[in-house]
Write a structure and sequence with these properties.
Helix content: over 70%
Number of domains: 1
Distance between the termini: 32 Å
Largest sheet: none
Shape: globular
Strand content: under 5%
Radius of gyration: 22 Å
CATH class: Mainly Alpha
């Protein structure tokens, strides 16, 4: 036994080691049992919803008081709590799990296992986010600030279901590129504070810019629909509006106009633009190495 073992390094992992870690994490994720995977996904949906609640509350009533950019920045900083809870607390988030393609591209994860994870986690995220949305509706939190919180929730959701398909798709692409970059940076972290700092800037950026996150939208739009369809008359009087003013806000527009293109965009941005790019750079077997190995079959026998 070495009487003086080396001290563990406090330096962040370098990108090559981050890629190997991401690959191993992907393998571990797909091998979770379905019930544990679903339960962790429900938690992630609720955690992201908590970030959305914080953002909605922080930005309520800011229009006309603060500049657009400052309001968006404050909302983005508030929203960060969602991914912090997911990464540090431990949960399964569909958008972050797009990085499993790194293990898939290395043939350590089958296509079936990859899709199984994505489907179970996506459904679990949906349950967690929508149940949280309904709970917030029942709590009456949307009436706080003389209805300012509810008005902000309705405004956010109405804007999301008013996007055209291409807009929603592209906003979803760039959103999950930043989300997966935040998760990628966390692969190099050595401490909890490292992870938190790695998360804050990419996530605050995507929210401030106005990109579209499918799991966050599973909270933002349903909570507004619950408010629109069930808020008392006093709420509408306080905000000086009616349910008819939010005509685009329907369940069909939620699923077809927003969630469908945003989800497709999130997969493109996370799996292709981040996961496969980093796999190609750090994990792809070199052609030269494969050729040399093929030319020396005796090494395999040994």
């Amino acid at each position: 036994m070495n009487p003086n073992p080396p001290l563990p390094s406090l330096d962040a992992l370098v990108p090559g080691d981050m890629a190997k870690k991401a690959e191993n994490v992907g393998v571990a994720k797909v091998n979770l049992g379905p019930f544990r995977m679903f339960a962790l996904a429900v938690l992630a949906g609720a955690f992201i919803a908590m970030g959305a609640i914080f953002m909605t509350t922080v930005t309520a009533g800011a229009s006309g008081v603060l500049s657009y950019g400052v309001t968006r920045l404050l909302g983005g900083l508030a929203f960060c709590v969602g991914l912090i809870l997911v990464v540090v607390g431990g949960a399964e988030l569909f958008t972050g799990n797009n990085l499993i393609v790194m293990a898939w591209a290395s043939r350590k994860v089958s296509t079936g296992r990859l899709l199984r994870n994505w489907i179970i986690v996506y459904l679990g995220n949906f349950v967690g986010a929508v149940v949280t949305a309904y709970g917030m509706y029942l709590s009456g939190q949307f009436t706080f600030g003389k209805g300012a919180v509810g008005l902000q929730a309705l405004t956010i959701a109405n804007a999301k279901v008013s996007l055209d398909f291409t807009q929603a798709l592209v906003l979803g692409i760039f959103c999950n590129a930043l989300v997966c970059l935040a998760v990628w940076l966390c692969m190099g972290a050595r401490s909890t504070m490292d992870k938190i700092m790695a998360i804050i800037f990419p996530i605050a950026a995507f929210v401030a810019i106005g990109f579209e996150h499918s799991i966050a939208n599973m909270y933002f739009i349903p909570v507004a629909l619950f408010i629109k369809n069930g808020a008392p008359a006093e709420f509408w009087t306080n905000i000086g509006a009616t349910a008819a003013d939010f005509g685009n806000l329907t369940w069909s527009n939620f699923f077809i106009v927003n969630l469908l293109p945003v989800t497709i965009g999130n997969i493109i941005g996370g799996a292709l633009m981040v996961g496969l790019v980093y796999w190609f750079i750090y994990l792809r077997p070199s052609w030269t190495g494969q050729k040399e190995e093929a030319e020396k079959p005796e090494l395999k026998k040994a």
